Amino acid sequence: MYLAIEALFSATDKRYLTGDELKMLGRYSLSLPHRLKIYRQLRSQELSLFQAIADEMEAKLPEEPQENLERSLKGGVSALRQCAMAMLVNDVDLMADQLRWLKSTQANYDSQAIDTLLFSLLHRQLEQLLAPKQMKFFETFYQPLQAL
Amino acid sequence: MISVADLLSATPNAPGSFYAASSYVRSDLELGLLENRSGSRLLAIPDTLIKALYAGLEQETGLASRLVLANCGRWWGKNFFQRFSEELSQHYSQSLSELPMAEFVQSLQECWISHGWGTMDLDPEVAEKGFLMVKTWNSPFAAQAPQMNRPVCFMDAGILASFFSALTGQELDCIQISCESLGSDCNRFVLGLAERLAPAEDMVESQTDWTTIVQTLTA
Questions:
Q1: Most buried among A8, B29, B171, B195, using CB within 10 Å?
Q2: What is the pLDDT of residues B132-143, one digit of tens each?
Q3: How far apart are alpha carbons A8 and A24 in whole angstroms?
Q4: Entry pTM
């Protein structure tokens, strides 16, 4: 959507938008308050959400060096921020770079098991934070992380 | 106990890639400008220009065109390292030498992609013998090069030589031992001290396969 809208704006000096293009723009505009609300919730609850995850990870993986847990947590924070932005601008492709980075980090540090736990805990936290309808909407953007 | 607040305030920019193409490359359609996220100008080179560079240099300088391209690459690589080093140090609030190897390599790989040079990886296979092997895929310089009976990524070799010389603080040479333009699965570059790489030159010219070259160098 992000690129689609940018393309619409670049065409303005040549023609008026078509009916379908206007419909697409209208649908996106109408969905913006909904998107902004989710984005604000994620932004304001970031610390408490990830603190709860950090506490549970430490409890579940007492033998794991703190450095490894912190690395995964930082990756999780970054991934969720990117997800939130992808949702805000309706462009799931924005996740591609982040996913590549996470996969590469997992390979370098052999951290897939920690990440799997982190994202399952994150999923649970998100279910508590967001209403079911919001969660369903957000899952489109969040789902690639769970598949890691 | 982990404090997420402390973790994020200590390294606000740590997670994710600085060079992620979606945020690194910025364009202004009206002005026709490309910039990176630090505000430095980027230059988009059409395939036609790369083809023309090869053809023009070949016509003007003959065999010396390889040397010209490699030297251009060296100059490019020197500036590339400087920018890479500055951008990454600023992003991570750490000097390049303090950065964990994994983050450094990941960032270089992402940087390579975002600049449209294909993909790359460092192969540790020959590291114990004092060489560094770099593999690249989908190089635009290989794709547009004229057909020769030898590897043709002279510019890439120059960039890598200069980049890793600056990184290691030692004057390194770089030689390409396999090339996509010759049907290889990837472009392989070996970096090392010039006198140790010298035997590979003749083998590349005589179209020796890359595994034999590596075996000879590391014997």
A1: A8
A2: 999 999 999 888
A3: 10
A4: 0.84
Between CA B172 and CA B189 the distance in angstroms is 12
Give a yes or no: residue B12 inside a domain. Answer: no
Assess B124–A contact: CB distance below 8 Å, yes or no: no
Contact A97/B110, CB-based, under 8 Å? yes
In angstroms, the separation between the Cα of residue B62 and the nearest Cα of chain A is 41
Is residue B169 one of the residues assigned to a domain? yes
Quick check: B109 contacting A, CB < 8 Å? yes
Contact at 8 Å (CB) between A96 and A147? no
Q: Where are the domains of chain A?
A: 34-146
C-alpha–C-alpha distance, residues A90 and A77, integer Å: 19
Total domain count, chain B: 1
Could you tell me if residue B28 is inside a domain?
Answer: no
Model ipTM?
A: 0.80
Task: Give contacts of B 5-64 with A, CB under 8 A.
Answer: 5, 7-8, 11, 14-17, 20-23, 29
Neighbours of B195 (CB within 10 A): 8
**Interface contact B4-A58, CB threshold 8 A:** no
Per residue in A88-104, pLDDT (tens digit) is: 999 888 888 888 889 98
Q: Which residues of chain B make contact with A77, given a CB cutoff of 8 A?
A: 4, 8, 15
**Can you give the CATH number for the domain in which B54 is found?**
3.30.1380.20
Q: At which residue do the structure tokens 């947590």 appear?
A: A73
